[in-house]
Each structure stands twice: as C-alpha cells, then as structure tokens.
Write a structure and sequence with these properties.
This protein is an alpha+beta fold. It is about 50% helix and about 10% strand. It folds into 3 domains: about 80 residues, no CATH class; about 90 residues, no CATH class; about 110 residues, Cupredoxins -  blue copper proteins (Immunoglobulin-like, Sandwich). The protein contains 12 helices and 10 strands. The strands form 3 sheets. The chain has a 5-stranded mixed β-sheet with strand order 2-10-9-5-6, with no helix packed on it. The protein has a 3-stranded mixed β-sheet with strand order 1-3-8, with no helix packed on it. Strand 5 and strand 6 form a beta hairpin. The longest helix has about 35 residues. Bound molecules: copper (II) ion. Copper (II) ion binds next to loops.
C-alpha cells in the first residue's frame, strides 16, 4: 500500500509531463478559443496603453474643436439607423454557426433570419445613400450645376449643406454596389477553405465579376473626365449604376456552390459517393470487423452508418480524400469519446484499431468538424 501511493503520484506526474513534452494536439483544440481571446485582450490592452500615452503627448497640439455646421463643400451624412441594422444580421449569422446541429453546419432559422436582416440593412443603407445623393444632385442642378462659382459667389450659405458640390478638383465617387459585392466573394473563398472546394470556385468566380465590374465602373467615371466633355467626373445616379443582373448572378453562383458543397453525395460528383449509396440501400446489415469509410467534405462522411461485430476488436480504415483538410473518426457514447482516431490531413489513409465495443448504438464524428457524424451499430 505504502509503495503504491508514490508510484501513483509518479504516474500522474509523468502524465502531466507528457502533455508538455508530446502534447495530444487533439485534446488542446478546445483551448484554441481561449488562446485567441487572450491574444485579443493583449492587443486591446496594448492599444489602450498606446492611446493613453499619445493622448497625453499630443493634447497640446490638438486644434480646438470646431463648432457649428461643416464647412461649405463638405457633406456629412445624417444620422442613420442602417449601420446598426446590418451588423445585427451579421451577429445572427455568426450565432447560427455556433448553434448549428442536426448534421447541418448552421442553425437554419437563425441563419435565414440573419441573412434577411443583413440584406435589409444593406439594401436600406444603399437606398438611403442614393436618396441623399439624388437630393444633392437635383439641388446642385437647380443652382446651375456651378459648384465653383456658387462657392466663390457667396450665395452658398443659403443652400443646405448637401446641395453643394465638393470643392473644384475634388471628386468623390458616387455610391457604388461593388464595395458590398466584392467582400461576399472573399467570404465564400474563406468559407471554402473550411467546407470544400466548390465554395472556393464560387468565390473566385464572384471575385472575378466584382473586380471587372468595379474596374469598369471606376473607369467610366475617369473617362468622362478624360473625354473632355465634362470639367469634372460624372458620378452616375446610383440606381442606374446598379448592375441589376448582379444579384441573380451572385445568387445563382452562391446557390450552386452551397448546393454542391452540402449535397456532394446526392449529386454523386465525388468519388466514394457510390459506396455511400450502396451502404444506405443495403437491406440486410452484416457486421464488418474491417469497415472502411472516407471523407470528401467537411459536412459529412461518405457513410452515415457503420455496423461492426460486438465485443470484437475492429480495424477501421479511414480515407481522408480532402487535400489539406484535417479529419478523423472518433466514436462517442452519449457525448463521451470511447475512441479518438488520429487527426490527419488528406489525401491519406489510416487504419484505426478500435477496441472491442459492447453491443449497442454509438455515434461517430470527426473531431474537427462536428457536422460530420453518423451512427455506429455494434451487434
Ligand atoms: Cu472533418
């Protein structure tokens, strides 16, 4: 007895030490968010410190705050609710990613609500800006479109601030849809890195459209000056400048990319979808002591059901077909991991030695991608 106690302590110490010397990276994954949070807090603290220091140093050099309306030629947009609405949509979409379940990467009602609120916010913001722009444009036209003379003529102060053009030589581009559409393409590329190549292809297509469209748009304004007809660039009415075919085009690319990503097995484009169909359709299930399964997306395995013999060691062959994306197979019972296979990036194959399991139903998942799940029957 006396001898056992210190040995026990020693074993525990070795276990602790092992985490430092050869950490089980898989077990450390849950701590990543904490690490990120710590980093963010550090950066914020550093920013606060820098800000306080430079504030003390610069206080004497800051000019006194200007009172009253903005100077002639400068227009500041009025208070608007839209910068608040759009981020609410974003927040709902992020929450939908957190509360995903039932084999889907997102919580569908939350995701759709987020999309709707976000789209309403962006559309409202865009229309609001356009309305203000048109009011300014019509006001300037009413005074002869002579921004320069009007400013020097002294008649300006009676005009509302928004009716005055920027000073000569200064051109502000009109409201444009491109700064909104280009980031959607970026978002798809980033999501594609997580969920599969079709989203990347879709994102790149959208990015190509956005780059060409934005470039042509900017070029048009520039050429209106170069051509010499206008003393200043012509900003177009945002409503006319809006490429109406863009929303359906982006929508179809997005739908196609999401569809191909979510339903690779149904569409049958991926290798391995064949045995998934065979596995699902087999009426009589016979236990297999050496089953094989594969992964070709981050939302599902190629099979959602495995049948193994009870109380027998099982050799599970797992083929990760996704290049560069890490996957594994872990077997759970009521949320507790009974077996966790090594996580490795594809394309590669591992044979896992699964310990004997008593008869019953288990869940198997990918530790990296919770939406990848299936049922393991031991019989
Ligand atoms: Cu995975």
């Amino acid at each position: 007895m006396n001898d056992e106690e210190p040995r026990d302590l020693w074993t525990q110490f070795l276990d602790l030490l092992q985490q430092v010397v050869a950490p089980v990276w898989n077990d450390l994954i849950p701590f990543l968010p904490l690490l990120m949070l710590g980093l963010v807090l550090l950066v914020l603290a550093w920013m606060a410190r820098t800000w306080r220091r430079s504030m003390a140093k610069n206080r004497s050099r800051v000019p006194p705050r200007r009172r009253g309306p903005p100077p002639v030629g400068v227009h500041l947009p009025g208070p608007s609710p839209w910068p608040f609405v759009a981020p609410v949509g974003m927040a709902l979409i992020v929450l939908s990613l957190v509360f995903g379940g039932g084999g889907l990467p997102v919580n569908v009602p939350l995701f759709l609500a987020g999309l709707a609120v976000g789209a309403a916010g962006v559309a409202g913001w865009y229309l609001d800006a356009g309305r203000e722009w048109r009011r300014a444009e019509s006001g300037a036209l009413a005074t002869g479109h002579g921004g320069a003379t009007a400013i020097s003529g002294g008649a300006v102060p009676q005009l509302p601030a928004w009716a005055v053009e920027p000073p000569p030589g200064v051109h502000l581009p009109g409201p444009s849809p491109w700064p909104f559409f280009a980031p959607i393409a970026m978002a798809f590329v980033v999501l594609g890195l997580i969920f599969g190549p079709f989203l990347i292809i879709g994102g790149l297509l959208m990015a190509a459209v956005a780059v060409v469209g934005w470039y042509r748009d900017a070029g048009r304004e520039y050429h209106s000056v170069e051509a010499g007809h206008m003393p200043e660039p012509v900003t177009r009415d945002p409503e006319k400048a809006f490429p109406k075919s863009l929303v359906p085009l982006y929508g179809s690319i997005a739908a196609l990319a999401i569809g191909l990503t979510l339903f690779p097995v149904i569409i049958g484009l991926f290798p391995g979808s064949g045995d998934a169909a065979a596995g699902g359709g087999a009426p009589a299930e016979s236990p297999d002591a050496a089953p094989a399964i594969a992964a070709n997306s981050a939302v599902s395995f190629t099979k959602d059901r495995l049948v193994v013999p009870a109380d027998t060691p099982v050799e599970l062959t797992f083929e990760n077909q996704q290049e560069g994306v890490p996957h594994n197979v872990a077997i759970l019972q009521e949320g507790t991991a009974l077996f966790t296979g090594e996580v490795f990036p594809g394309p590669d194959t591992r044979t896992y030695d699964v310990p004997p399991l008593p008869a019953g139903e288990y869940t198997f998942i990918c530790s990296v991608h919770p939406p990848m799940t299936g049922t393991l029957v031991s019989q």
